[in-house]
Amino acid sequence: MGTMLGEEVSYTDHPIFLSSTGFYCNFLRYSVLGWSWSAKATLVGFMAGAAIIVSLQQLKGLLGIVHFTNKMQIVPVLTSVFQRTDEWSWQTIILGASFLLLLLTTRKVSMRNKKLFWVSAVYPLTSVILSTLIVFCLKSKLPMVKTVMIINTIYIFFIVKAVLWRKNYEAALKLWKVDKIDFFTCLCSFFGVLFIAVHLGLAIAVGVSVFKILLHVTRPNTAALGNIPGTHIYQRLRRNRESQRVPYFLLVSIEAPMYFSNSTYLQE
Fold this sequence. Notes:
By secondary structure, this protein is mainly alpha-helical. The protein has helices at 2-8, 15-31, 40-57, 59-63, 74-83, 90-112, 117-137, 147-164, 169-178, 180-196, 198-218, 260-267, and strands at residues 222-227, 234-236, 252-254.
């Protein structure tokens, strides 16, 4: 988000504008003011798409690419990666991949054995120290390797490790089982963020959410009710097998207030 904002407004030319914008957003955030159209489906798709984009952006440091795109879409990023194959550094790839593997291993160990929770917490700092020692020990044999480059490589894999767990597959599958429109909203947010832009992807998902609300208001769910014998309780006939129809009457439950927008639909 900071990269996108920097493309529109330069922080060097308009520092007061950006500072006031950040203060205003934080004020609304902590005072819980304004409206929120970011439903669960929108957030699941956005977080998954943003996690992939952030991970792909780290390929610049992983592969040692100097000339890399500043765009946040998947197509320009992959194009920049494969067009700069001559800038790839196998030393950086091996070092970074080995530390990422160790990071993931320590996380698995901490998750399986709660007594070893400290392993996952201590290893990130340990990896930075080890990478620095490796550079100092091999400085004469690898003159092209710099300490700053190694530390940046480890830092990049910290980011990759963090965003890998932001893709919530279980929540997406649950949306598919519960509500198909919410699942479609999740897909719109995911692919919009991935292929178009973050703000446009969120705008599309919010538009689908608003359409769902309007659809529910104009076409509310209805259900026939029946009486449970011996009581004054009425339940849906499809859900409760004990409920029975009331002779000469049709009892209908409407899951929305009656407005002019749905009056014709209910009458029909």
